[in-house]
Design goal:
TIM Barrel
């Protein structure tokens, strides 16, 4: 009954028979959902932030808001509504393939009408299932959070990834069994209610009755169904990736043989991008419809019946509406392709910032790393500053010496004389034995006139003001104010620097950026973890008059991608690689550079 080959044959047959009606419904639903969901989610989030009435920029602030009553309510509502959209789309497709044959557009419109008519029941089912899964996950999430706080709460994430301390392995040894138990229970619950949606849609049951029906139908079949569902999910995930790779592999060389004349190259690229966008939409449709039809077919096999439903009433001009929707999608693809192509700027520049100096070639935050950054052609050296136990400004990322030296001592508890005896070069290699932690003053003296600085403040609790004042004073004394950016992960620290020195440029480093939050910081530049950067966010940041830096990017392919996104500054451990990449791009012809930009867009 659940053999894979007959199931695939049935799904393929249903798509072949109903494909026009399925496409029409998919377009109707996508346009309707986009028109409603995007402004609804953005508006409710903006309302939440206004209601809370406090800045939401740093990781800590985001976590505080997420764990507040209003934040939890919004997250639950957003999660529930996201799953509700999936339920609604699958319900409509189930209705399409189970309807009597007729006008394909009328069938699609009828399915959409049915979804709207049964919206209360579908919403109740979605929130029952999502709520049950959240209740199941809550004790496990709390358990993992308490384990993290107990074993790793005072350890910086950077230290965890670089040092891999014993406490990290202890945490993983305790947390992974908890997560595996949760995954097993959640998977069992999901499969138990797997057929509730088709029971509600095809048998017109209520939400509770549909859950009971699903539990009865999936009894003794759950794990065979699980394998089928997993195989489908993997296929849906892999096919778009394979398509992008194939499209890039075939299309790039074809475009590369075109003459480098704008009258030929620009229209060809426009057509190429439009075709890619339409094909991506088609693959999305196939993935959604195949998953919906898998659930429908499994329900038919388990229940032993294939319901044939009368079509819901639909507008008489359903065909006109459907053709309008399809033309709108093609127009959208062409407009988006043109917009993408227009954004391909030939003359682009980006500043190179050596992360903690040339830290791929020398011990981080040392004078040797500074010299390496200068030799690599970096525009800036990024460095971290903090106060010693006797309130001297020193250059160091970690307060604890354990990662670099194996010594379990805090710099905030040591005098400058004691710190001067610490060797932070031996761990990197014999060539750097004897390398010391420099003072900020010593590094300023070495950098002046040779390289600009990106100074990240790392204050201990209640020392932010003292650290900021000393750093600003030393910058003024060394005449480096115009050659420095002061940065921090803390919005309050950036705001304090701007109060003390409005003429010094500042950067706020962010892991995430919520809509509407930019108005809450005076930072001149936003520094993003590179995985969070995307063209839309960059347009928003540039539109606010701010620069954009991304950190920490070490792969040349990723560097090229972020250059083409339009970032202003790339922070990297390998400044020499970025410098070589920029030199290589400067030697490219316009046609070659356009192809590079196209490839980077496809990879994004």
């Amino acid at each position: 009954m659940l053999a894979p080959r007959p199931l695939i044959k049935d799904i393929t047959r249903q798509i072949a028979v109903h494909w026009r009606a399925l496409i029409a419904f998919h377009l109707f639903f996508t346009l309707l959902a986009t028109a409603l969901w995007v402004p609804l989610s953005a508006g409710t989030l903006a309302g939440l932030l206004k209601r809370i009435g406090q800045p939401v920029l740093s990781n800590g602030q985001i976590v505080d808001i997420a764990l507040s009553a209003w934040g939890l309510l919004w997250l639950l509502a957003a999660l529930g509504l996201s799953f509700l959209l999936i339920f609604l789309q699958q319900a409509g497709m189930m209705r399409v393939v189970s309807s009597r044959h007729g006008g394909r557009y009328r069938v699609a419109m009828g399915a959409l009408w049915h979804v709207l008519r049964r919206f209360p029941a579908l919403a109740a089912l979605a929130f029952l299932q999502v709520g049950a899964h959240l209740l199941l996950a809550t004790p496990f999430a709390l358990g993992v959070a308490h384990l993290y706080a107990w074993l790793l709460g005072d350890t910086e994430p950077y230290v965890l990834l670089r040092v891999l301390p014993v406490a990290l392995w202890q945490f993983l040894a305790l947390a992974l069994p908890l997560l595996l138990v949760w995954a097993l229970l959640a998977g069992t619950l999901y499969l138990r209610w797997f057929l509730a949606l088709p029971a509600l849609v095809l048998e017109e049951l209520g939400p509770m009755a549909a859950l009971t029906r699903s539990r009865h139908l999936t009894r003794q079949r759950r794990w065979r169904m699980a394998l089928l569902v997993l195989a489908m999910a993997l296929s849906v995930a892999v096919i778009p990736i394979a398509f992008s790779l194939l499209f890039n592999a075939l299309g790039g060389p074809l475009l590369g043989h075109l003459p480098e004349r704008a009258s030929v190259l620009i229209p060809a690229m426009l057509a190429y991008l439009a075709l890619y966008i339409v094909a991506t939409i088609a693959l999305t449709f196939l993935g959604v419809s195949a998953n919906s039809l898998l659930v429908t077919t499994l329900f038919q096999r388990a229940s032993g019946r294939t319901p044939v439903l009368d079509s819901e009433p639909a507008p008489r001009r359903s065909g006109v509406i459907a053709w309008g929707a399809e033309i709108l999608v093609l127009a959208f693809a062409l407009l988006q392709a043109g917009w993408i192509l227009q954004g391909f700027e030939i003359n682009d520049t980006v500043s190179i910032t050596a992360h903690r100096g040339a830290s791929h070639q020398a011990p981080e935050n040392t004078l040797a790393a500074l010299e390496g950054a200068i030799d690599a052609g970096a525009d800036y050296m990024e460095l971290d500053v903090r106060l010693s136990g006797d309130d001297q400004v020193i250059v160091a990322h970690d307060d604890n010496l354990r990662r670099l030296t194996g010594i379990d001592r805090r710099l905030s508890e040591m005098t400058l004389d004691e710190i001067a005896q610490v060797d932070v070069g031996a761990w990197f290699g014999d060539a750097f034995i004897g390398e010391r932690i420099p003072t900020f003053a010593a590094l300023l003296a070495r950098a002046r006139g040779r390289i600009d600085l990106y100074v990240e403040l790392k204050p201990a609790p209640r020392s932010a003001d003292a650290l900021a004042r000393q750093v600003i004073a030393q910058l003024r004394a060394s005449d480096m104010v115009d050659h420095v950016v002061i940065a921090s992960l803390s919005p309050s620290v950036v705001a304090r620097v701007k109060q003390l020195a409005p003429d010094i440029r500042t950067t706020l480093f962010l892991q995430f950026l919520l809509p509407g939050a930019l108005a809450e910081t005076p930072a001149d530049i936003i520094g993003l973890r590179h995985t969070q950067a995307n063209p839309s966010l960059l347009r928003t940041l540039h539109g606010s008059g701010r620069g954009v830096a991304v950190w920490t990017v070490n792969n040349p392919g990723a560097m090229s991608r972020y250059i083409d996104m339009g970032v202003d500054n790339i922070i990297t451990d390998r400044p020499e690689a970025l410098s070589a990449l920029l030199a290589e791009r400067r030697d490219m012809s316009d046609g070659e550079l356009l192809l590079v930009k196209l490839r980077n867009w496809l990879r994004s």
